[in-house]
Write a structure and sequence with these properties.
The complex is a heterodimer of chains A (354) and B (413). Chain A has 354 residues and is mainly alpha-helical. Chain A has a domain of 233 residues. Helices cover 73% and strands 1% of the residues of chain A. Chain A starts with 5 loop residues before the first helix and ends with a helix. Chain B is built from 12 helices and 18 strands. In chain B, a hairpin with a 2-residue loop joins strand 1 and strand 2. In chain B, helix 2 packs across helix 11, helix 3 packs parallel to helix 4 and helix 11 packs across helix 12. The N and C termini of chain B lie far apart (80 Å). The chains are: A mainly alpha (354), B alpha/beta (413).
Chain lengths: 354, 413
C-alpha cells in the first residue's frame, strides 16, 4: 500500500468525522444515510468486476440476497425454530431479548459474509469462463433464478416473505435502531473502502486490468486469469453479503424477489451508479452512488408515478454524454488534476485505439 | 491531487447544504389541516390497485372536508394526505414510512396497498408509535404480532374464500370435494391459501392441485392443463388483479370446464367489463358490495357511493376503494372522540371504535383486525352482453341464487 499522503489524510479524516457525525447532524435522515452507505458498498465492489476486470456482472444481487436471508435465518435459528417463525406468514411471535438480538445479528452477518464468498467461488469456477455479453446474461439469469427459488422455500417464508426479528423493545430510544444500522453500514463502508483502496495499490488490480484489456494476452503472459477472476468475484461477494444482511435487518421484511433478489432495482442500480460515477476508478462509484441516491430521494417524490421515466432519461443522458462516467469526464477535461501527463498526441492515440 | 481534494470539499459542502435546506419539517397538524401520510403503489405490479386505494382516500378526504371536516377541541380541521409512490416494493415502502414520519413529521398514517407492503411498514409505525389505519393489508399474520398501533378496516385474508369451499361442499350434497388451487407467491394470496387449507381440513376435502404462480403473473396454462386432466370440483385462483385477468383469459381460451371457479379481485380487475361473458359464473370474494344495506352520513349507502365514485373517477368502485374511504371515516371518528391530537389518545380512541359506515360495521379486535364485518361472495352474471356482480352469499344480502355448476364451454353461447 502506498504511504498515505498528508492531503489524503486530511480528506479521509474529514470524511470519517463527517460519517460519524452524520446521524447526529441529520438525525431525520439516518435511514437514507444507511441506504447511501450500502449503495456505495455495492457500487464500489461491483466496480471490481465491471470496472477493473471488465466483466459486467448483473449477478452480484445474488450475494446480496443470500446475505440477507442468511443473516435473518441465523438470527432467528440460533434461538428459535426457524420453521415455526416463518410458518403461515409468520403468525407465531417469538421475542428476542436484547442480547439474543445482537448476538444473532453478529453471527448472522459473519455467515452472510462467508457463505456468499464461497458460493461466488463455486459459481465463478463454473461460469467465469464465459466472456462479454455471455457472462452478463448468465449472471442476470442467476439473480432471477435465485429469486424464484427462494420464493418456493417454505422454511424462509416462501412467497409470504420473512419478517426479520424486530429491534429489541427493551431499548426504548426510538433513534437507537437507526443509529445501530447506520454505524453498522458505515463500518462496512469503511472496511470496503480500505480494502478496495488496498487493491488499487496492488499488483492484483493490474492483473484485473490486464484481463479487462486483453484477456488472451494476459493468459499468454502466464497469468492464471481464471484464478484471479474468481478471487475478484469472491471479494465482491463478501461485501455484497454483508450489505444484504444489514439491509434485511433494516427493512424488517424480506420478500424473495422485491427485497432480497431485487435484480430489477438494486441489481441494476449498482451497475448504474458505478457507470454514472465512472467505472474503473476508486472514487467514481462513490460519487456515482451519492449522486444517484440524491437524485432518487430528492427528485423522485416530486414526480409521483413518473420516477422511472426520469430514471430512463437519466440513463440515456449518462450513456450519451458521460459514457466514461463523471470521473471519466473530469479526467478527460482536466487530465492534469489526475496527475496525468498531458501529451495530446498520446491521448488522441489512446482514444483512437479504444 | 490538491485540486481533487478541493473538489470533494465543495461537493460535500454542497450535499450538506442540500440536506439542511430540504429538512424543513411539516407538523402533524398544520394550521387547519390534519396531515396524514401514505405510501401508495402508483407504479409497479400493484399500480392499478394502488390507484383504487388512492382514489378511495381522496374521495373520503374531499367529502369529509366539504361536510364540515373534523371537529377537535371546538375547532374544525381538514384532512390532507402526503403521498409517496412505493413502487409496489416493500423495501421502498419501509423507507418511505420512515421518511413520512421522520422528515415530513407525519403523526398519523394510512396504509399502503397489499399485505406485503403493510408487513414492511407496520414495524416502522410501531417503532415510532404512529397510529396507522390501513384498508388493504389483509394477511392474517399482521394481526398476531401484537402491533398496538395498527388498525385494519378489512377482514383477514384467510376468510376470503373459506366460505366458497363450504358452498362447494353444500352443493356436493355435503360430501367432501376435490380442490384445485393456484396462488400467486405473495403474502396476501398465500394467506388466502391458508384459509382454503383450513376449510379443506374441516370439510375433509382433498387438494389435488396446489400450484404457485409467479409474481409477474401472465400465464397459468400449466395449471389449467392439469385442471383439464384431473377434473376437480372447485378451482381456486388468487393473484391480485393480474391473477384474476389471467385466469379468466386462459380458462376461456383453453375452454377449461370446471363446476366452480372461486377467485379474488374480480371487481378490481373489472372482470365483468373486460371479459364480459367469458367471466360469467366466476365466484368472487369481496370485502364490500354496493348492494349491502350499511349507511353513514357522509356517503349515504353503498349505491350512492357507487354513483358518486363513478361520477368522480369514471369507473365503478372496487371494494379496495370503498374500504380505503372507510379508513378516513374511522380516523375522523377517532379524532373527534379523542378530542385531541395526542397520538396515544387517538390510538386509544381507535381501539374503542364501534361504528357503521357505508362500507360495513367497524370494530377492532385485539390484534387490530375488523371483527364486525363478514366477507361476501358475489358471482358474475350476464344478461345479454352486460355482465354484473350479483351477491350470492351470505344469504342476508343475497340478491341472486348461486348458479352451480358452471355450464360446459360447449354448452355456452
Amino acid at each position: 500500500m502506498n504511504t498515505v499522503k498528508q492531503k489524503d489524510l486530511i480528506l479521509y479524516s474529514g470524511l470519517i468525522i463527517l460519517g460519524l457525525a452524520a446521524p447526529f447532524l441529520f438525525s431525520a435522515f439516518k435511514v437514507q444515510l444507511t441506504y447511501l452507505c450500502v449503495l456505495i458498498v455495492l457500487a464500489m465492489t461491483w466496480n471490481l468486476q465491471g470496472g477493473e476486470m471488465g466483466y459486467n456482472s448483473f449477478g452480484n444481487i445474488l450475494f446480496y440476497g443470500l446475505g440477507m436471508y442468511l443473516t435473518a435465518s441465523v438470527q432467528v435459528g440460533m434461538f428459535f425454530p426457524l420453521a415455526e417463525w416463518t410458518e403461515s406468514g409468520g403468525e407465531k411471535t417469538f421475542v428476542h431479548t436484547t442480547a439474543q438480538y445482537f448476538q444473532g445479528i453478529g453471527v448472522g452477518l459473519l455467515v452472510a459474509a462467508i457463505v456468499p464468498t464461497i458460493v461466488a467461488g463455486a459459481i465463478g469456477y463454473a461460469i467465469l469462463g464465459l466472456r462479454g455479453h455471455y457472462f452478463a446474461i448468465c449472471t442476470l439469469g442467476l439473480g432471477i433464478a435465485a429469486g424464484e427459488i427462494a420464493g418456493g422455500i417454505e422454511i424462509i417464508g416462501a412467497g409470504q416473505g420473512f419478517t426479520t426479528p424486530p429491534f429489541p423493545s427493551e431499548i426504548v430510544d426510538p433513534e437507537a435502531r437507526g443509529q445501530f444500522f447506520y454505524f453498522l453500514s458505515f463500518l462496512v463502508l469503511v472496511l470496503a473502502f480500505v480494502f478496495v483502496k488496498y487493491i488499487y495499490g496492488s499488483r492484483f488490480r493490474l492483473i484485473l486490468n490486464a484481463i479487462r484489456d486483453n484477456e488472451d494476452k494476459a493468459e499468454a503472459m502466464g497469468i492464471q486469469t481464471m484464478k484471479y477472476k474468481i478471487v475478484g468475484w469472491m471479494c465482491s461477494a463478501f461485501f455484497c453479503g454483508l450489505a444484504g444482511g444489514i439491509m434485511g435487518g433494516l427493512i424488517g421484511y424480506i420478500d424473495s424477489t422485491d427485497v432480497a433478489f431485487d435484480g430489477r432495482e438494486m441489481g441494476v442500480f449498482m451497475v448504474l451508479m458505478a457507470i454514472l460515477g465512472g467505472k474503473g476508478t476508486l472514487w467514481g462509484p462513490i460519487i456515482g452512488a451519492t449522486l444517484f441516491h440524491f437524485f432518487k430521494e430528492g427528485l423522485w417524490t416530486f414526480i409521483l408515478g413518473w420516477q422511472y421515466v426520469a430514471l430512463g432519461v437519466l440513463i440515456v443522458v449518462i450513456v450519451v454524454y458521460f459514457p466514461e462516467g463523471l470521473m471519466g469526464w473530469l479526467r478527460e477535461k482536466y487530465p492534469d488534476r489526475f496527475g496525468e501527463v498531458i501529451d495530446e498526441k498520446d491521448r488522441k492515440a489512446q482514444v483512437e485505439i479504444k | 491531487m490538491n485540486k481533487l481534494v478541493k473538489l470533494f470539499t465543495i461537493f460535500i459542502s454542497a450535499i450538506t447544504l442540500t440536506i439542511a435546506s430540504i429538512s424543513s419539517s411539516f407538523a402533524k397538524v398544520e394550521g387547519e389541516y390534519i396531515v396524514l401520510g401514505s405510501a401508495i403503489s402508483l407504479t409497479g405490479k400493484y399500480s392499478s390497485n394502488g390507484v383504487h386505494t388512492q382514489n378511495g382516500y381522496n374521495m373520503a378526504v374531499e367529502r369529509i372536508n366539504k361536510m364540515g371536516g373534523v371537529n377537535v377541541g371546538g375547532k374544525s380541521y381538514k384532512f390532507e394526505i402526503i403521498y409517496y409512490d412505493d413502487e409496489s416494493n416493500p423495501k421502498r415502502a419501509a423507507q418511505l414510512a420512515e421518511r413520512l414520519i421522520k422528515q415530513d413529521g407525519v403523526h398519523y398514517m394510512l396504509g399502503p396497498y397489499s399485505s406485503g407492503l403493510t408487513k414492511a411498514i407496520a414495524p416502522v409505525t410501531e417503532k415510532y408509535k404512529i397510529p396507522m389505519v390501513e384498508a388493504n393489508g389483509a394477511s392474517r399474520s399482521l394481526f398476531t404480532k401484537g402491533y398496538k398501533y395498527l388498525f385494519a378496516v378489512l377482514s383477514p385474508a384467510n376468510q376470503y374464500l373459506e366460505v366458497a369451499i363450504d358452498l362447494a361442499v353444500e352443493k356436493n350434497g355435503g360430501k367432501p370435494v376435490r380442490i384445485a388451487q393456484a396462488f400467486e407467491q405473495d403474502a396476501f394470496s398465500q394467506d388466502v391459501r391458508l384459509g382454503i387449507l383450513d376449510a379443506a381440513k374441516r370439510t375433509g376435502s382433498e387438494i389435488i392441485i396446489d400450484d404457485k404462480l409467479p409474481k409477474e403473473l401472465n400465464d397459468m396454462a400449466a395449471t389449467l392443463a392439469k385442471v383439464k386432466a384431473t377434473k376437480p370440483d372447485v378451482l381456486v385462483v388468487s393473484g391480485h388483479t393480474k391473477g384474476a385477468l389471467t385466469a379468466i383469459r386462459q380458462i376461456s381460451e383453453m375452454k377449461v370446464d370446471v363446476p366452480m371457479l372461486a377467485m379474488t379481485h374480480c371487481d378490481a380487475a373489472k372482470l365483468s367489463k373486460q371479459h364480459g361473458k367469458n367471466s360469467e359464473y366466476a365466484l368472487c370474494a369481496s370485502q364490500w358490495h354496493k348492494n349491502l344495506s350499511y349507511k353513514d352520513k357522509f356517503f349515504g349507502g353503498g349505491k350512492k357511493y357507487d354513483r358518486d365514485f363513478k361520477k368522480e373517477f369514471g369507473y365503478a368502485p372496487p371494494y379496495q376503494s370503498a374500504e380505503s374511504s372507510a379508513a378516513l371515516l374511522v380516523f375522523k371518528d377517532a379524532f373527534e372522540r379523542a378530542n385531541s391530537f395526542d397520538r396515544d389518545k387517538v390510538r386509544d380512541a381507535l381501539k374503542t371504535t364501534d361504528m357503521q359506515t357505508f362500507y360495513g360495521n367497524i370494530k377492532f379486535g385485539p390484534g387490530g383486525q375488523n371483527v364486525a364485518k363478514p366477507m361476501i361472495l358475489f358471482q358474475v352474471r350476464c344478461k345479454g352482453d352486460t355482465c354484473e356482480n350479483k351477491v350470492v352469499a351470505p344469504t342476508k344480502w343475497a340478491s341472486d341464487k348461486f348458479y352451480h355448476p358452471i355450464p360446459k364451454w360447449s354448452e355456452r353461447s
